[in-house]
Design a protein that fits this description.
With 144 residues, the protein is α+β, with helices and mostly antiparallel strands. The chain has 3 helices and 7 strands. The mean pLDDT is 93.
């Protein structure tokens, strides 16, 4: 029997030493996305626009942007491509808030519509990639 999606959201937060506009751009600009969350990306940051990221050459996450409040909030659908995907493209929803704080931005990510197994799996993924986001922005700031 399949696990039913939970009403509770998977939540993660990370503080990034950069302004909201900069951090937001790492979720909407394909080249910047590739510095922290994938080898290739196609992003069309508008409601209904494509969200596609080739994470590691084998696994592709895909969905569509639903809502964009520049520099404040992004909502997109999420899932994995492939015949045997346990989470079909667009089957779950991710909301990312960018909260201005002294010295940077708090990124608050909530991933909805996951069953218990997928919540654990996706949680490991976000735990891996969100620190890479902070590191990519830190590296870009050092190079400028």
């Amino acid at each position: 029997m399949l696990n039913a999606p939970s009403n509770e959201a998977l939540e993660r937060e990370i503080f990034v030493e950069a302004g909201q506009e900069t951090v937001y751009s790492y979720f909407t600009d394909a080249q910047k996305m590739q510095t922290w969350n994938g080898q290739q990306a196609r992003l069309d940051p508008r409601p209904g626009g494509e969200y596609w990221v080739n994470i590691n050459g084998e696994d592709q996450a895909s969905g569509n942007f639903l809502e964009l409040e520049p520099f404040e909030r992004i909502v997109f659908t999420w899932g994995w491509e492939g015949q045997n995907s346990p989470l079909a493209p667009g089957a779950s929803r991710v909301e990312v808030r960018f909260i201005s704080q002294t010295g940077g931005t708090l990124v608050r990510l909530k991933h909805f519509d996951l069953d218990k197994n997928q919540a654990a799996y996706q949680g490991q993924g976000w735990d891996h990639f969100l620190p890479q986001l902070a590191a990519a922005i830190r590296k870009a700031n050092l190079n400028n």
